Amino acid sequence: xxxxxxxxxxxxxxxxxxxxxxxxxxxxxxxxxxxxxxxxxxxxxxxxxxxxxxxxxxxxxxxxxxxxxxxxxxxxxxxxxxxxxxxxxxxxxxxxxxxxxxxxxxxxxxxxxxxxxxxxxxxxxxxxxxxxxxxx
Length: 136
Known about the structure:
The protein has helices at 39-42, 44-54, 61-68, 72-84, 107-135; strands spanning 59-60, 88-95, 98-105. It is an alpha+beta fold. The relative contact order is 0.17. Residues 1-20 and 22-27 have low confidence and may be disordered.
């Protein structure tokens, strides 16, 4: 079994979204609060996909698949979840007679990634602060 198969595992359709898959509303946590990680983006495959797309305006499906090292089905499933959250745009067209699909982050997707990365940095800063106070 390859490592790709388990990178896209989520609850089965119809089980509803996982409780932690609600988008975060703010970038930084208030003092004493847990950082607001974005549950949609936090999924490892989705985070990889969003990070990959953050470096470009738009990318062809096969380039994203290869760059993220996932199967077509895993990419499709996770792209659909990001599209449903409003974080990803899917554009279909043709190159010659061959159908093609392009993926891009929406402005909301770019903002969500920035908030998620800020929340991760808040966690790092909190850990450094806690480590510093333990040694004092």
